[in-house]
Amino acid sequence: QYKVRQRDRYVNYTSPTDGYSALHIAAEKGLTAIVRLLLDCGANPDLPDGIRSNCALHFAAREGHRRTCTMLARWGASQKSTNDIWYTPLHLAAKEGDLEIVEAL
User: Fold this and answer.
1) What domain range is 63 assigned to?
2) Of 17, 89, 104, 105, which has fewest CB within 10 angstroms of its CB?
Protein backbone atom coordinates (compact mmCIF):
# COMPACT_ATOMS: atom_id res chain seq x y z
CA GLN A 1 0.00 0.00 0.00
CA TYR A 2 2.88 2.38 0.73
CA LYS A 3 4.26 1.90 -2.80
CA VAL A 4 0.90 2.83 -4.31
CA ARG A 5 0.77 6.04 -2.28
CA GLN A 6 4.35 6.85 -3.27
CA ARG A 7 3.57 6.23 -6.95
CA ASP A 8 0.52 8.49 -6.81
CA ARG A 9 2.56 11.21 -5.19
CA TYR A 10 5.18 11.13 -7.93
CA VAL A 11 2.87 10.72 -10.92
CA ASN A 12 1.02 13.86 -9.83
CA TYR A 13 4.16 15.80 -8.92
CA THR A 14 4.01 19.42 -10.06
CA SER A 15 6.95 21.69 -10.75
CA PRO A 16 7.50 24.32 -8.06
CA THR A 17 8.10 26.96 -10.75
CA ASP A 18 5.02 26.59 -12.96
CA GLY A 19 2.90 23.91 -11.34
CA TYR A 20 3.02 21.71 -14.45
CA SER A 21 2.80 17.94 -14.06
CA ALA A 22 4.08 15.34 -16.51
CA LEU A 23 0.48 14.91 -17.70
CA HIS A 24 0.17 18.64 -18.46
CA ILE A 25 3.30 18.55 -20.59
CA ALA A 26 2.36 15.34 -22.40
CA ALA A 27 -1.14 16.69 -23.15
CA GLU A 28 0.24 20.01 -24.38
CA LYS A 29 2.63 18.20 -26.74
CA GLY A 30 -0.03 15.73 -27.93
CA LEU A 31 1.91 12.71 -26.70
CA THR A 32 -1.13 10.46 -26.49
CA ALA A 33 0.80 7.28 -25.61
CA ILE A 34 2.52 9.06 -22.72
CA VAL A 35 -0.81 10.53 -21.58
CA ARG A 36 -2.25 7.00 -21.51
CA LEU A 37 0.73 5.66 -19.57
CA LEU A 38 0.44 8.44 -17.00
CA LEU A 39 -3.31 7.90 -16.63
CA ASP A 40 -2.71 4.15 -16.21
CA CYS A 41 -0.29 5.02 -13.39
CA GLY A 42 -2.88 7.14 -11.60
CA ALA A 43 -2.26 10.65 -12.91
CA ASN A 44 -5.07 13.04 -12.03
CA PRO A 45 -6.54 14.44 -15.28
CA ASP A 46 -8.22 17.30 -13.39
CA LEU A 47 -5.11 18.56 -11.60
CA PRO A 48 -4.79 22.31 -12.37
CA ASP A 49 -1.44 23.86 -13.22
CA GLY A 50 0.05 26.52 -10.99
CA ILE A 51 -0.14 29.44 -13.41
CA ARG A 52 -3.56 29.64 -15.08
CA SER A 53 -5.32 26.68 -13.45
CA ASN A 54 -5.44 24.79 -16.73
CA CYS A 55 -5.95 21.04 -16.56
CA ALA A 56 -4.56 18.51 -19.05
CA LEU A 57 -7.67 18.77 -21.25
CA HIS A 58 -7.24 22.55 -21.47
CA PHE A 59 -3.70 22.07 -22.82
CA ALA A 60 -4.69 19.40 -25.34
CA ALA A 61 -7.71 21.40 -26.56
CA ARG A 62 -5.76 24.64 -26.90
CA GLU A 63 -3.02 22.93 -28.92
CA GLY A 64 -5.43 21.04 -31.18
CA HIS A 65 -4.60 17.47 -30.12
CA ARG A 66 -7.88 15.70 -30.87
CA ARG A 67 -6.72 12.17 -30.00
CA THR A 68 -5.34 13.36 -26.69
CA CYS A 69 -8.58 15.24 -25.92
CA THR A 70 -10.64 12.16 -26.71
CA MET A 71 -8.48 9.96 -24.48
CA LEU A 72 -8.61 12.40 -21.58
CA ALA A 73 -12.39 12.68 -21.89
CA ARG A 74 -12.74 8.88 -21.91
CA TRP A 75 -10.64 8.71 -18.75
CA GLY A 76 -13.03 11.07 -17.02
CA ALA A 77 -11.29 14.43 -17.40
CA SER A 78 -13.82 17.12 -16.59
CA GLN A 79 -14.96 19.00 -19.65
CA LYS A 80 -16.52 21.57 -17.34
CA SER A 81 -13.37 22.53 -15.43
CA THR A 82 -12.53 26.20 -15.73
CA ASN A 83 -9.21 27.99 -15.61
CA ASP A 84 -8.44 31.33 -13.97
CA ILE A 85 -10.41 33.27 -16.60
CA TRP A 86 -13.35 30.85 -16.48
CA TYR A 87 -12.53 29.13 -19.80
CA THR A 88 -13.38 25.47 -20.23
CA PRO A 89 -11.43 23.29 -22.68
CA LEU A 90 -14.29 23.86 -25.15
CA HIS A 91 -13.80 27.63 -24.92
CA LEU A 92 -10.09 27.25 -25.73
CA ALA A 93 -10.77 24.99 -28.72
CA ALA A 94 -13.37 27.43 -30.05
CA LYS A 95 -11.02 30.37 -29.50
CA GLU A 96 -8.40 28.55 -31.60
CA GLY A 97 -11.03 27.85 -34.28
CA ASP A 98 -10.53 24.08 -34.04
CA LEU A 99 -13.85 22.60 -35.18
CA GLU A 100 -12.64 18.99 -34.74
CA ILE A 101 -11.88 19.54 -31.06
CA VAL A 102 -15.11 21.49 -30.55
CA GLU A 103 -17.08 18.58 -32.00
CA ALA A 104 -15.09 16.04 -29.96
CA LEU A 105 -15.85 17.88 -26.74
Assistant:
1) 2-104
2) 17
